Amino acid sequence: xxxxxxxxxxxxxxxxxxxxxxxxxxxxxxxxxxxxxxxxxxxxxxxxxxxxxxxxxxxxxxxxxxxxxxxxxxxxxxxxxxxxxxxxxxxxxxxxxxxxxxxxxxxxxxxxxxxxxxxxxxxxxxxxxxxxxxxxxxxxxxxxxxxxxxxxxxxxxxxxxxxxxxxxxxxxxxxxxxxxxxxxxxxxxxxxxxxxxxxxx
Length: 201
Prior knowledge:
By secondary structure, this protein is an all-alpha fold. The protein has helices spanning 12-26, 33-40, 44-51, 54-68, 71-79, 83-98, 108-111, 123-147, 157-176, 181-192, 195-199.
């Protein structure tokens, strides 16, 4: 009977959460291994053994962020009675999340890796794909709005989806720069004021 390996002497989930916070605050490039190991309260060999490379750790942190932080924003789209209400709540939940005093401001997916190698599988390409996912989600809710008679079939849904995704990305940047919930709420309301013109067909 072979001897069992020693169990890890740390809480993997808690360590990953702390790594997520570092990447969220500093971005992928600026987060050093020293920053990560200090926050995670583990040494470098333990980090590599448990999570793989820095890029692997970042990918897992993004997955955690998406499932934990981003889910409420995403759920606003399918759960709303109308597409207009869904998009309005999508922006409002963005404003609330990005200015939460208990977490870093802004969006990790928008701000985590804006520059760098864009090859498939890199942190930069990973976040680009996640940002495009939001456009896909928005377009899906708009398509449902067309099926339900809320939006004219002649509307350029891709353009509308990209517009509101761009507004959301801008909200993330201004939140990181210190914008308040009140300020982002006004941005969301201003974007929704354009709704009728965008979906009138």
